[in-house]
Amino acid sequence: MKDKALIIRSIAPLVESPLHAESLTDEALCGMVVEVLEQEGEWNYIRTPYRYEGWMHESCLLKDLACVRRWETLPKKTVWFRCADVLKEPKVQGAILQTVWRGGLLAPLGEPEEGWRKVLLPDGREGFTPDEFLGKYVTEQTPAGEEAFREALVKTAMLYEGTQYRWGGKTPEGIDCSGLCSMAYLLNGVIIYRDAAIKEGFPMHEISLSEIKKGDLLFFPGHVAMYIGGNRFIHSTGHMGTHGVTINSLDPKDPLYREDLRSHITAVGSIF
């Protein structure tokens, strides 16, 4: 059995090798429980709940097994707002204990009072955040039906519109193309491969372009986007002039058309 650890940082960077200077490959988020596969000094080779692996610094992790087990048993809420400040007191003037970004997890303590929710942070500190910033922690696809799920995927991806591009990023502070698509699915209870590819062992499978529907993914060389309907797609791009999460089109008549992408589609993916 692998050791477990709890992410206590708001954003916990994963890198390719145990050096601070290494390029970012992913970001795990506050409240996630990860597996520790290997340790080298202050660095841990970890596997995330969505089965992505990389090196993470010791400072991002709480390894006390009793604390991890307790956290796993607690009900959780997901931060759905761009970010949520957890404050020492239930008032806007309260000192900030920690800022948790969208996708991070908090454990609610009791019912909300006057709009404030008392919460437990993964490191054991208690604080308060606006209850409206929190949403359901979804761990599996809801049985609402395919159309409703597709709409939810698009709505979730659109929350990140205007976010800057960040290689390896996964939050409204900065996000890359596969981070955007994988987070849209993860927040709706489905784990897809974190990188811009269709990978065996994950639910995404290839379909034809003529079959594409909202929430399906468009793959390009080293890039991925989500189809939102009407021949348009949302993606996070480092392309100069847009540089971030934006909407473009497959239609040459649309002012948002990106011919460089339309002519280089390598695959279309769907979980349906």
Task: Throw out a few tags for this protein.
six-stranded antiparallel beta sheet; 272 residues; 3 domains; 4 helices; SH3 type barrels; five-stranded antiparallel beta sheet; mainly beta; single chain; endopeptidase fold (from Nostoc punctiforme)
Walk me through the topology.
Elements: E1 3-7, E2 11-15, E3 24-29, E4 33-40, E5 43-47, E6 53-57, E7 61-62, H1 65-73, E8 77-79, E9 83-87, E10 96-101, E11 105-108, E12 116-120, E13 126-130, E14 134-136, H2 146-158, E15 170-171, E16 174-175, H3 177-186, E17 205-207, E18 217-220, E19 223-229, E20 232-237, E21 244-249, H4 259-262, E22 267-270
Antiparallel strand pairs: 1-4, 1-7, 2-3, 4-5, 5-6, 8-11, 8-14, 9-10, 11-12, 12-13, 15-16, 17-22, 18-19, 18-22, 19-20, 20-21
Q: How would you characterize the overall build of this protein?
A:
A hairpin with a 2-residue loop joins β19 and β20 (232-237). α2 (146-158) crosses α3. The strands form 6 sheets. The protein has a 6-stranded antiparallel β-sheet. The chain has a 5-stranded antiparallel β-sheet with strand order 6-5-4-1-7. The two termini are 33 Å apart. Helix content is 13%, strand content 37%. It is mainly beta and 272 residues long. The protein has helices at 65-73, 146-158, 177-186, 259-262; strands spanning 3-7, 11-15, 24-29, 33-40, 43-47, 53-57, 61-62, 77-79, 83-87, 96-101, 105-108, 116-120, 126-130, 134-136, 170-171, 174-175, 205-207, 217-220, 223-229, 232-237, 244-249, 267-270. It has 3 domains: 3-72, Roll (SH3 type barrels), CATH 2.30.30.40; 74-136, SH3 Domains (SH3 type barrels); 146-270, Alpha-Beta Complex (endopeptidase fold (from Nostoc punctiforme)), CATH 3.90.1720.10. The longest helix has 13 residues, at 146-158.
